[in-house]
Amino acid sequence: MDSFLIAADSALRTLFASPRATRTCPTVPDSADASMTDDERKLSGALMRVNHVGEVCAQALYTAQALAAKHSDTPHRDALVRQLEAAGREETDHLAWTIERLDALGARASLLNPLWYAGAFGIGLLAGRLGKATSLGFVVETERQVEAHLASHMDRLPAKDQASRAIVAQMKADEARHAREAQHAGATELPVPAKALMKAAARVMTTVAHRL
Fold first, then answer.
1. pLDDT digits (tens, 9 = 90+) for 61-75
2. Is the dihedral of CA 155, 138, 16, 83 positive or negative?
């Protein structure tokens, strides 16, 4: 019952509450926003909506993996839970920053966020139940793919949108650090088919979220 309540609370806070960042958003109101064209603003909004979906999924993944670790008999279980929860808190910063930026751009979050959250939670729970090394390996591969995805957004964001660029740059640095920390904690390399499946799922999500 406790696990169910924790999972439900995380889902409700992620999907319906206003997230609160523990770190200052790495951007300030940018006068260049006013000079962005409608097309540039629309593109930035679509890209930041995709990034926000990624953070919704991150909340689900880390919550599910931490819950699975808490109920496992893996060695150093408490340390693993603390690591997953700490990374999840930083992802909450990203969640707050991206929704703040969406508001500034006059864009909306994805209409399918509940679906994205539910799918990611199930995947995270499965990864967590496969043991510490595999769970951490899933973190490494996820964060590497997210880092590459954010790098592509840095190339696509309008040059005038320095505010979004600053947020994406900090998110990219955080994701890379999460991957390194998971690697150092004993992650195992995922098999190639698993990596390919993760990429395919991410491609579907990003393509749909760009519009919906």
1. 999 999 888 877 776
2. negative
Encode pLDDT of 81-116 as tens digits: 889 988 989 999 999 999 999 999 999 999 999 999
Q: How far apart are CA 8 and CA 48, in angstroms?
A: 26
What single DSSP character describes residue 34? G
pTM of the model: 0.91
In this structure, how many other beta carbons lie within 10 angstroms of the beta carbon of residue 105? 23
Tokens 């994205």 correspond to what residue? 116
Measured in residues, the chain has a length of: 212
Question: Do 29 and 100 contact (CB within 8 A), yes or no?
Answer: no
Shortest CA distance to 65 belongs to which of 93, 94, 87? Answer: 87
CA 168/CA 166 separation, integer angstroms: 6
89: Cβ–Cβ under 8 A, 6 or more apart, which residues?
Answer: 22
Q: In this structure, are residues 9 and 59 in contact, taking their beta carbons and an 8 Å threshold?
A: no
- Residue 168: how many other CB atoms lie within 10 Å: 27
- Give dist(CA 183, CA 177) in Å, integer: 10
Q: Which residues contact 151 (CB under 8 A, 6 or more apart)?
A: 172
For residue 16, how many other CB atoms are within 10 A of its CB? 9
The H or E element that residue 57 is part of is helix 38-70
Q: Which two tokens stand for residue 177?
A: 């650090």
* Residue whose tokens read 């900090």: 170
Mention every residue, 6+ apart, whose C-beta is less than 8 A from residue 170: 26, 97
